[in-house]
């Protein structure tokens, strides 16, 4: 694992954009695994600026998002589909048909999960997977549990995740209780993983996930077994390691 220390959120976001842009330059048709949450927003802003300055093009990029809340339509302002449009896709030249996200409105959820796994396979897997870190150690929406889940699945969100994500909703009751998420297989098979962490409240989990035992009770700990992981964080988030 490579650890990159950034002074603050802005520097972390710039360094993340550097890594993403280097990947796109190396392979303009890269498959990027993309994440939501507040942590990557700065990196997406940087990517938009660099696109506007003609420093990077997304014309051949394929984007595969990690997860989506169950039951929300893509036009719902709380959906991750909407988040990706608002923070990145609407402002760069990525083709809409190259932006993928699990469909939480599919009639047959099992079939949708299989479709998403087949889709990632058909794209040749993920070149660079961007990740955030949940306060309980989740990645995507792979919540703590007895086993690591391999494929895309429907997950019941834990109480701590519902609490953590309620800040994005006007009422706690509005936070969806379920989500569709990719499993660990495409993340572990990604050629490179870039995990971003910012803020003091992530510091204990960074320590547990990367320096504690590998256990499904701390889903991100599986990344200790990945051959090419970059942990990029600001000083506060990396303060306990
Ligand atoms: N499903 C997302 C995760 O992909 C994200 O990493 C996590 C952390 O979010 P934040 O970056 O806002 O702390 O939140 C959500 O639950």
UniProtKB/TrEMBL annotation:
Per the record, what are the reactions this protein catalyses? alpha-D-glucosamine 6-phosphate + H2O = beta-D-fructose 6-phosphate + NH4(+)
Might you give the EC number(s) for this enzyme? 3.5.99.6
- The keyword Hydrolase is annotated on this UniProt entry: yes
What GO biological process term is on the record, naming one? N-acetylglucosamine catabolic process
Please provide the record's keywords in A-Z order: Carbohydrate metabolism, Hydrolase
The metabolic or biological pathway listed in the UniProt record of this protein is: Amino-sugar metabolism; N-acetylneuraminate degradation; D-fructose 6-phosphate from N-acetylneuraminate: step 5/5
What Pfam families has UniProt attached to this entry?
Glucosamine_iso (PF01182)
Question: Where are the catalytic residues?
Answer: 67, 136, 138, 143
Q: Which Gene3D superfamilies match?
A: 3.40.50.1360
Positions of the Glucosamine/galactosamine-6-phosphate isomerase domain: 20-225
The record's top EC class is hydrolase
The entry's cellular-component GO terms read: cytoplasm
Q: Which domain of life does the protein's organism represent?
A: Bacteria
Keyword Kinase (UniProt): no
Question: Recorded GO terms, molecular function?
Answer: glucosamine-6-phosphate deaminase activity; identical protein binding
Q: What is this protein's function per UniProt?
A: Catalyzes the reversible isomerization-deamination of glucosamine 6-phosphate (GlcN6P) to form fructose 6-phosphate (Fru6P) and ammonium ion.
- Family of this protein: Belongs to the glucosamine/galactosamine-6-phosphate isomerase family. NagB subfamily.
Protein's recorded name: Glucosamine-6-phosphate deaminase
């Amino acid at each position: 694992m490579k650890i990159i220390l950034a002074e603050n959120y802005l520097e972390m976001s710039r360094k993340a954009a550097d890594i993403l842009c280097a990947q796109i330059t190396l392979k303009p048709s890269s498959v990027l695994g993309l994440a939501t949450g507040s942590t990557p927003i700065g990196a997406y802003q940087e990517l938009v600026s660099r696109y506007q300055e003609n420093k990077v093009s997304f014309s051949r990029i394929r984007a595969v998002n990690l997860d989506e809340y169950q039951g929300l339509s893509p036009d719902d302002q709380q959906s991750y589909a909407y988040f990706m449009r608002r923070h990145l896709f609407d402002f760069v030249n990525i083709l809409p048909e190259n932006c993928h996200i699990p469909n939480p409105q599919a009639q047959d959820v099992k079939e949708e999960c299989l479709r998403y796994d087949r889709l990632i396979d058909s794209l040749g897997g993920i070149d660079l997977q961007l990740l955030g870190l949940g306060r309980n150690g989740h990645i995507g929406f792979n919540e703590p549990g007895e086993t690591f889940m391999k494929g895309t699945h429907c997950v019941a969100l834990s109480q701590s995740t519902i609490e953590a994500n309620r800040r994005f909703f006007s009422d706690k009751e509005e936070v969806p209780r379920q989500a569709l998420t990719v499993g660990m297989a495409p993340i572990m098979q990604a050629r490179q993983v870039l995990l971003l962490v910012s803020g003091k409240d992530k510091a204990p989990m960074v320590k547990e996930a990367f320096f504690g035992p590998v256990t499904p009770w701390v889903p991100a700990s599986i990344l200790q077994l990945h051959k090419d992981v970059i942990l990029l964080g600001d000083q506060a988030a990396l303060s306990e390691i």
